[in-house]
């Protein structure tokens, strides 16, 4: 193989020349990681509080995932969906039993899971074309999922989209009641809006959606691609409310880092999906499904849901205490390992300063910091985050944007004392 220059400058220059500019990438070059830590190309160490945008729930290089990958690679990497292999059915059974639903379909990504859910709802409700979704929701980038994505800036360049979407404000039960009627094919909700700024839907709102779906025959679909699989402290976010949807969609953490999405369907979809209605070449491939089973094993055997709840409750209280002494924080929202911190200023600038202090975090909308850390993240990462965040907001920030790994950074000194991650 040809040797390529992999220095950060060369990597950025090559991308600028040859990669289509769909991403406004941050100039950050993670190259390895272990647990909740990432190491960049220069050897600087960071706490990863974004977890690949909710993918890396077991952190990096988790021994169970590494072993599953090694063992799985000695078998078949790919089997056509025309044939059988055991891993898909095992993962399907586990998800179905845990969800209270009846069947699983596997695909490769979140947007594909939502596309499949839309098609299944069409089959279940022929002739009904309206879909009720939420303002500021995010369901994916393919045309069907995009049609239901409430953030108008994502949609408008691609119109005309799939017709029939109606958007209502989250948690406004009266608006939902006004929008849902006999023509409604499906109600599409994220139990906790992710891209929309970490907005949990109330139990009353989910119950109202269930009631309206039952009354009109609409299919109730929960998109748990970002908030599902343990992120809120229950395996499915809807389990906090006790409201069970007709369809739930999953992706991000499901494949342990490899692409894997799933659609779980209930009674309303029984018997309507026939061979030939839907399919995929790669969806539910053996290796991704084995990794999915390993993710579930680890969540169960290491009691990670209890951990997510406990750390989440404590961290939420810490953030709210910080809010009470910091006017720049407008609101703190979230639960478990899913937090949004709404600021009175642009979030990207603050995220950049926190990155320079050794914390990888995300943003949502213009003014929300978004944290989606691995479930195994140690408490001290959050303690250090709160201290660094307070320092940044109080204005006594390290103006030269020192990077974790450099001696003038207190966070770095503590991290360095715990041993660097080998590259
Ligand atoms: C709630 C939700 N739905 C759907 C998607 C789309 O998933 P993917 O990027 O895997 O297509 C995302 C991605 O961020 C998401 O957060």
Characterise the protein shown here.
This protein is of the alpha/beta class and 423 residues long. It has two domains: 8-61 and 303-417, Aspartate Aminotransferase, domain 1 (Alpha-Beta Complex); 75-301, Aspartate Aminotransferase, domain 2 (3-Layer(aba) Sandwich). Helices cover 37% and strands 17% of the residues. Strands 4-12-11-10-7-5-6 form a seven-stranded mixed β-sheet, sandwiched between helices. A hairpin with a 2-residue loop joins strand 13 and strand 14. The longest helix is centred in the last third of the chain and has 22 residues, at 304-325. The protein is globular. The structure holds pyridoxal-5'-phosphate.
Bound molecules: pyridoxal-5'-phosphate
Secondary structure class reads: alpha/beta
Distance between the termini: 21 Å
Strand order of the largest sheet: 4-12-11-10-7-5-6
What is the approximate shape? Answer: globular
CATH topology of the largest domain: Aspartate Aminotransferase, domain 2
Helical amount: 25-40%
Alpha carbon gyration radius: 22 Å
DSSP strand tally? 17
Q: How would you state the average pLDDT, rounded?
A: 93
Residue ranges: pLDDT <50 for 5 or more in a row?
397-423
Task: Name the CATH architecture of the largest domain.
Answer: 3-Layer(aba) Sandwich
Largest sheet: 7 strands, mixed
How many structural domains? 2
In terms of DSSP E residues, the strand content is: 15-25%
Helical run tally? 14
CATH superfamily of the largest domain: Type I PLP-dependent aspartate aminotransferase-like (Major domain)
């Amino acid at each position: 193989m040809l040797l390529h220059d992999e220095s950060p400058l060369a990597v950025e220059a090559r991308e600028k020349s040859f990669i289509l500019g769909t991403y406004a990438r941050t100039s950050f070059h993670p190259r390895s990681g272990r647990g909740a830590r990432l190491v960049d190309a220069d050897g600087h160490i960071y706490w990863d509080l974004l977890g690949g945008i909710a993918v890396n729930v077991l952190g990096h290089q988790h021994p169970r995932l590494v072993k599953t990958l090694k063992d799985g690679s000695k078998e078949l990497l790919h089997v056509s969906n025309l044939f059988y292999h055991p891993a898909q059915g095992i993962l399907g059974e586990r998800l179905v039993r845990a969800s209270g639903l009846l069947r699983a379909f596997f695909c490769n990504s979140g947007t594909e899971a939502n596309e499949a859910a839309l098609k299944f709802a069409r089959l279940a409700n022929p002739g009904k074309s309206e879909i009720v979704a939420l303002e500021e929701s995010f369901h994916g980038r393919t045309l069907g999922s995009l049609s239901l994505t409430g953030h108008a800036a994502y949609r408008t360049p691609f119109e005309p989209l799939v017709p029939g979407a109606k958007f209502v404000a989250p948690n406004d039960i009266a608006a939902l009641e006004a929008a849902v009627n006999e023509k409604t094919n499906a109600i599409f909700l994220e139990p906790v809006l992710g891209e929309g700024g970490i907005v949990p839907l109330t139990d009353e709102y989910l119950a109202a959606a269930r009631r309206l779906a039952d009354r009109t025959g609409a299919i109730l679909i929960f998109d748990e691609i970002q908030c599902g699989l343990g992120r809120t402290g229950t395996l499915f976010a809807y389990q906090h409310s006790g409201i069970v949807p007709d369809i739930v969609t999953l992706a991000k953490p499901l494949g342990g880092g490899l692409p894997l999405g799933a659609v779980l369907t209930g009674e309303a979809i029984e018997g309507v999906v026939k061979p030939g209605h839907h399919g995929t070449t790669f969806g539910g491939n053996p290796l991704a499904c084995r990794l999915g089973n390993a993710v579930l094993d680890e969540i169960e055997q290491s009691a990670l849901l209890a951990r997510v709840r406990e750390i989440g409750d404590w961290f939420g209280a810490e953030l709210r205490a910080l809010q009470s002494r910091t006017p720049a924080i407008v609101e703190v929202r979230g639960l478990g390992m899913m937090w949004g911190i709404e600021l009175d200023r642009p979030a990207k600038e603050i995220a950049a300063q926190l990155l320079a202090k050794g914390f990888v975090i995300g943003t949502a909308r213009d003014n929300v910091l978004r944290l989606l850390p691995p479930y195994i993240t140690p408490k001290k990462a959050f303690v250090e985050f709160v201290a660094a965040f307070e320092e940044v907001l109080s204005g006594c920030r390290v103006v030269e944007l020192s990077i974790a790994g450099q001696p003038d950074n207190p966070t770095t000194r503590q991290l360095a004392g715990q041993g660097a991650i080998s590259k």
